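hi! just following up on the protien thing from before. the input was this:
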Amino acid sequence: MITSILGRLATHTPQLGILVVLPQMLTMTSLAISSKMLTLARFRHGRILLHLIAMVGDRSVRFHVAGIVRELPWVA
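and the predicted 3d structure came back as:
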């Protein structure tokens, strides 16, 4: 996905330098990722998946395990 964004920006805006194009590229990429995360957050299994991904990233195991337990009705 990022390579396609880079390709489109490189072909459609050849007169602009990378310093001008880079903020646009980062904004589009972050919007795409945040919309996918919002879609996942709407569903119980998606929230569990987001907790697991975040646990690997920030190593805050206790917080994320508590969040996962909240999402499992048969455990809570």
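The chain has a mean pLDDT of 76.
The first helix runs from residue 2 to 12.
cheers
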